[in-house]
Amino acid sequence: MTQTGSRPRLLSVGNVLLVCKDAEAIRLLTEAAQQFALSLDVHHQAETAASILGRQKFEAVVVDLELGDSAKTVLREVCLSSSNQTAVTFTITSRNAEKDSGMSIGSTFTFVRPLSVESISLTLKAAYGLIVRERRRYFRFPLAVPAFLRTAEGKEIASQTVNIGEGGMGLHTSHPFKAKEQALVQFTLPGQPSQFSAKLDVCWCDQSGLLGVRFLALSAQQKSGLREWVSARFEESIPERVAVHFRKSAAKR
Predict the structure, then answer these.
(1) Tell me: the pLDDT tens digits for 42-59?
(2) β-strand partners of 93
(3) 3-state class of 40 per DSSP?
(4) I want to staple 50 with a disulfide (CB 3.0 to 4.6 A). Which of 31, 77, 121, 169 is the partner?
């Protein structure tokens, strides 16, 4: 059974890590973020925030430079994180630029005190296209269609897709694959006239037969077609007011 029917839209377009002790700043950022369907994960301690960057994906990271050297630690961890190094980064600064100079390592956008919902919203609006694009890059659409795998030894295995994104997919199979094993996969995306065939690399697997794989050596046509299909599914899943912005952003690319 193909699972591509009408689905409820996502309540959140992006997860934002906020590292800040200032209660008023947290309140204002939370209020502004809600207008953009962004979900805040607030941490008061830089050490805790730096640790969670290695375990969770965020579309954006906001760090208050009043945390001092700890703020630099968090920003460095963002740059070093394999899953968060492309996250959109913000710093909260004071009016005294010299005080905060040299601390906003890798930061792309800045919230300047005194903060207000209006000033925060203006900055978020400028960064919003990047945040939505970051979410789309890691978006996985739930999809259950038949798929066929061929191992390096030539064995053909029936399987089923679980989800799919621009760079890879989830599969369920009875064959005991191992991490880093390569195979060929064939399946048909709903609404597409031809089969999708690609070489894949197994990133992880578990005892229940679930696989996480990434596609290898896709042609330019395959990349373009898959990106277009996934983007359409992503647009269907996000709030309409965000989808409008996403369509404008996509049209500019």
Answers:
(1) 999 999 999 999 889 999
(2) 112
(3) strand
(4) 77
